[in-house]
């Protein structure tokens, strides 16, 4: 590839990912941008619940100490950070970051930008009144059916606020529910000056972002191919090396573990893939069927040929709502006849719950080790298994039946089949069920409310 190269390094694939990864990306070689993806659909509801309890919460808390650790090196190396760590409270994330940076010596102050407006919770009633039905994309039901049980509602926003923040000189950009891929292609559009309707180049950026968004997955983590041969003790996370024509190379820092190959990149390309010709983002529709992947060797894979089409008039909205309660308990039965013992324990448990008159929406049993993880029925050889894990989960609209279930697991230790172990930590914990409601909304209803704030730390 000829011409200037822009390097966008992936440092996080989810909230809870390896905290050393972003540090290694900054300290192990030259990069221009560090993208950190913290959010998944369920994460938004968790963060919303935290913010309800504490108005200063609602963001990925481990992001702030990470930035405080890296701040001097970000300034020295000219590395800019783009992240959706703001969750449902980007302002609180910014405030915590600014407060912490006051005690960190840097060559110059860092400029912090936040993007707000994707969180629709406070506007939900007005949006519904205005005719935005937010119908479930899978069932067609209107959101009004479950309005009172909604915990969080966030629109997936695109790159334009990120571009504005970069143009205003931000070093660290904190968004809410930005689409994961925009954390990578936003910087590329900014650096190369691609037109907002240059669909092919933006689509190439989308593909780059899709490869980057899951952290180590594109660099040998969670791989099916020769997984035993991948050094994952200190893995290198993927880095996109892009040029102005939209072609890019996926690589990693030399000297770190992991592996970037044709197979690792293509495995990530098909991750969460529906129709490959219709990969919809807020900024374009990318055609993954046009992607060309070539293994250059030496942990370098070239991606080229990507085409795309115009963006749609709609944005996706991720909504989480309360849908009852659940609990899961487990016991392990040793052989001989481990599976038979586990099956009998399940029968006893269900009979006791029935006898007490408890009703559930669902009771699900898995015999782990006998095919449950693959959805298989135990075969003849299962009778000889040395151990089997009994895992039972229940779900109900109300809390009481689920709590009753949690009280019936431990008695199986003495009042159940023999050779049982693996019960520790007390009774199973009752949890709220957070259900997912995907919807679409006219993009103008969201984008008109997006705001970018830039401040010095």
Jot down its keywords:
457 residues; alpha+beta; Alpha-Beta Plaits; 2 domains; ten-stranded mixed β-sheet; six-stranded antiparallel β-sheet; 12 helices; 19 strands
Q: Would you kindly provide a written description of the structure presented here, covering whatever features stand out?
A:
The protein has 457 residues and is an alpha+beta fold. It has two domains: 6-118 and 156-312, no CATH class; 319-435, Alpha-Beta Plaits (2-Layer Sandwich), CATH 3.30.70. The protein has helices spanning 20-27, 41-53, 63-77, 90-101, 124-129, 160-167, 182-192, 199-212, 262-269, 338-355, 399-409, 443-447, and strands at residues 6-12, 33-36, 80-83, 111-116, 150-155, 172-174, 239-242, 248-251, 279-280, 285-287, 292-295, 301-304, 307-309, 314-334, 362-368, 387-396, 420-421, 431-442, 451-456. The chain starts with 5 loop residues before the first strand and ends with a strand. The model has no long low-confidence stretch (mean pLDDT 95).
Q: Helix and strand layout, with pairings?
A:
Elements: E1 6-12, H1 20-27, E2 33-36, H2 41-53, H3 63-77, E3 80-83, H4 90-101, E4 111-116, H5 124-129, E5 150-155, H6 160-167, E6 172-174, H7 182-192, H8 199-212, E7 239-242, E8 248-251, H9 262-269, E9 279-280, E10 285-287, E11 292-295, E12 301-304, E13 307-309, E14 314-334, H10 338-355, E15 362-368, E16 387-396, H11 399-409, E17 420-421, E18 431-442, H12 443-447, E19 451-456
Helix pairs in contact: 1-3, 3-4, 6-7, 7-8
Strand order of the largest sheet: 11-12-8-7-1-2-3-6-4-19
* Shape, per Cα inertia axes: globular
What's the N-to-C terminus distance? Answer: 38 Å
Domain unit count: 2
The number of distinct helices, counting runs of at least 4 residues, comes to: 12
């Amino acid at each position: 590839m000829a011409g200037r190269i822009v390097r966008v390094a992936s440092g996080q694939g989810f909230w809870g990912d390896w905290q050393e990864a972003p540090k290694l990306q900054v300290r192990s070689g030259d990069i221009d941008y560090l993208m950190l993806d913290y959010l998944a659909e369920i994460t938004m509801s968790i963060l919303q619940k935290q913010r309800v309890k504490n108005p200063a919460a609602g963001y990925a808390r481990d992001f702030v100490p990470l930035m405080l650790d890296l701040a001097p090196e970000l300034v020295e190396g000219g590395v800019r950070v783009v992240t959706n760590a703001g969750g449902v409270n980007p302002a609180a994330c910014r405030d915590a970051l600014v407060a912490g940076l006051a005690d960190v010596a840097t060559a110059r102050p860092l400029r912090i930008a936040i993007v707000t407006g994707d969180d629709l919770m406070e506007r939900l009633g007005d949006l519904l009144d205005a005719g935005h039905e937010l119908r479930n994309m899978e069932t067609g039901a209107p959101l009004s059916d479950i309005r009172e049980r909604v915990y969080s509602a966030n629109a997936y926003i695109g790159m334009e606020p990120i571009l504005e923040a970069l143009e205003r000189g931000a070093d660290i950009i904190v968004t809410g529910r930005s689409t994961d891929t925009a954390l990578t292609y936003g910087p590329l559009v900014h650096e190369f000056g691609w037109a907002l309707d240059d669909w092919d180049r933006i689509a190439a950026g989308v593909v780059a972002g899709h490869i980057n968004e899951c952290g180590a997955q594109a660099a040998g983590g969670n791989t099916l191919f020769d997984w035993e041969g991948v050094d994952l003790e200190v893995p290198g996370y993927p880095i996109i090396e892009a040029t102005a024509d939209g072609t890019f190379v996926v690589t990693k820092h030399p000297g770190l573990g992991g592996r970037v190959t044709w197979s690792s990149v293509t495995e990530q390309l098909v991750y969460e893939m529906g129709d490959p010709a219709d990969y919809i983002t807020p900024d374009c529709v990318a055609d993954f069927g046009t992607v060309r992947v070539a293994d250059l060797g030496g942990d370098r894979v070239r991606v080229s040929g990507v085409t795309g089409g115009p963006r749609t008039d709609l944005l996706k909205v991720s909504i989480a709502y309360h849908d009852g309660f659940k609990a899961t308990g487990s016991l392990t039965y040793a052989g001989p006849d481990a599976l038979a013992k586990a099956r009998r324990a399940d029968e006893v448990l269900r009979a006791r719950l029935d006898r007490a008159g408890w009703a559930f929406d669902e009771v699900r049993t898995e015999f782990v080790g006998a095919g449950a993880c693959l959805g298989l029925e135990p075969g003849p050889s299962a009778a000889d298994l040395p151990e089997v894990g009994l895992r039972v989960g229940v779900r109900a609209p109300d809390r009481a039946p689920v709590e009753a279930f949690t009280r019936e697991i431990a008695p199986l230790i003495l009042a159940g089949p023999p050779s049982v172990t693996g019960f520790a930590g007390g009774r199973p914990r009752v949890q709220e069920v957070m259900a997912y409601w995907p919807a679409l909304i006219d993009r103008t209803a969201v984008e008109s409310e997006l705001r970018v704030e830039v401040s010095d730390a």
